[in-house]
Amino acid sequence: MNDNTIEKYLAENFHISKDVIDFVEKSEAQIADRMAHWDRLAEYHQFKVIQAMQKVGLSDRHFHPTTGYGYDDEGREATEKIFADVFGCEAALVRPQITCGTHAISLCLYGVLRPGDELLSISGDPYDTVRTFIGAQGEEKGNGTLTDLGVIFNQIELLPDGIFDTEKIMNAISEKTKMVYIQRSTGYSWRKAITLAEIQRICAVIKAKWPKVVIFVDNCYGEFLDEKEPVAVGADLMAGSLIKNPGGGLAPTGGYTAGRADLVQLCANRLAAPGIGGETGATLGITRTFLQGFFQAPYIVSQAMKTAILVGAVYKNLGYPVCPDVDDYRSDIIQSIRLGDPKAVEVFCQAVQKAAPVDSFVTPVPWDMPGYDVPVIMAAGAFIQGSSIELSADAPMREPYIVYFQGGLTHAHGKLGLMLSLQQLVDAGFVAQDKLQTLD
C-alpha cells in the first residue's frame, strides 16, 4: 500500500489535511531511533510474563469461575503469584473488587496507617482524588478521611529538577512517620514522572536511617516502563489499576497492591475484613481476561509510549511547552502539553474523542467530577469505561491549561487521535496553517 492511499482515506473519512499528515509523519521520522528502545523493553517484559505463567503451571482449570465466597479459587491464587513474580516482590492482591487506582491506594494507606501515625508525601501533592480521601483539602469532618481518623499528613515538594529533596526528607522523618508516600506519575502537575533510579536512591537513603518506615509508591501509569518495578528496588508496597497499564486494555475492572507479604495482608484485611483477608472474593470468570490482559500488557504499553513520544514531538515542533521533553527519560505513559487556553483544551479533548472507536459522536465538556476541586474534561471513547491505557486525554480546567494525553492500544490509533487534535486546533485557529510548513 502506498502513502497516497492512507492520505486519501484520512482526508475523505476524517477530514485530515495532507499538511497535518505530513507534519506528523516528519515529526515521527525525527524520533525513529527512540522507538526501538520500547520494542526491546516490551520483549523483555513479555518473556518475564510468560515465564511467570509457566512457573505456576497456568492451565485452563485456572479460568473456571467461582461464585459466592470464592473459597479455594485456584485462578485467583495463580494470578496473584504471577503478578508478584513479574513485579519482583513477595505477594500481590489482584482483585476485581478493587474498583480503581484510588481504591487500590486507599487500601494500602488505610490498611497500614493507624491513629497518630504520620503519612509523609515526598513527591509533593498526591493526585486530587487521593488528597480527598487523605483529608488534605479541608474536607468536612466525619467523612472517614485519614486525617479524620487521626492520621497526620505532611508533604515535601520535589526539587525544581524533579528529584527528591533528600535533606528536607531526612529532616522531616521522625519516630511518628509510619509511611513515606511517593507518586511515580505526574498526576495533574507539570513535572516528569519520577524515575525508577531516583526511587531506588531515596529508598536506600531512607532505609539506612529509618528501616521500619514503610515506603509506598503509587505506581499508576508506571508498570512495564523500566526493567523492574518499585517494589523490586527498595519500596515496601505499591498499588495500581488494571484499567491502566497492567490490564493490557482487556481487564474490565480491578486493581492491585503488591509488595511485602505482611503489608499486602493488611491491604487484604482492609478490602475484606481481618480474619478473612484475601481468602474470599469470587472472580466470576474474570481470571482469563485478567491474565490475557497482563500477557499482552508489555506490548500495549510500548504502543502507548510510542504515541506519547510522538505527541510530544509534534507539539514541541509547533512551539508548545511539553512535559516530558522528547529526549527525556520516561517513567509513565503520560504526555503533557501546555496549551495555555481553556478553549484549546476543549478542542483538543473533543478531537481525541472523535478518534475513538466507542462514543466517537459524544462531545466531552468540563464537569464537576467527584474528588476534584475544579471542573475536569475527559476524552475517553474506550471499550472499558475510564480506561487510560486506551487512547484518552483529560485536563483540569485551571491555569495554565495543560492537557494530559495517554494511552492507545495501537500506535496507529494513537496517531489518528494526534492528527485529529492537530487538525481541529488548526481549524479553530489555535495553530496557524503556516506552522505546518516549518519542518520542510
Automatic annotation (TrEMBL):
InterPro entries: Met_g_lyase_put (IPR009651), PyrdxlP-dep_Trfase (IPR015424), PyrdxlP-dep_Trfase_major (IPR015421)
Organism name: Candidatus Pseudoramibacter fermentans
Name used for this protein in its record: Methionine gamma-lyase family protein
Source organism, top-level taxon: Bacteria
UniProt lineage: Bacteria, Bacillati, Bacillota, Clostridia, Eubacteriales
Pfam family, one: Met_gamma_lyase
Cited Gene3D superfamilies: Methioning gamme-lyase, C-terminal domain (3.90.1150.60), Type I PLP-dependent aspartate aminotransferase-like (Major domain) (3.40.640.10)
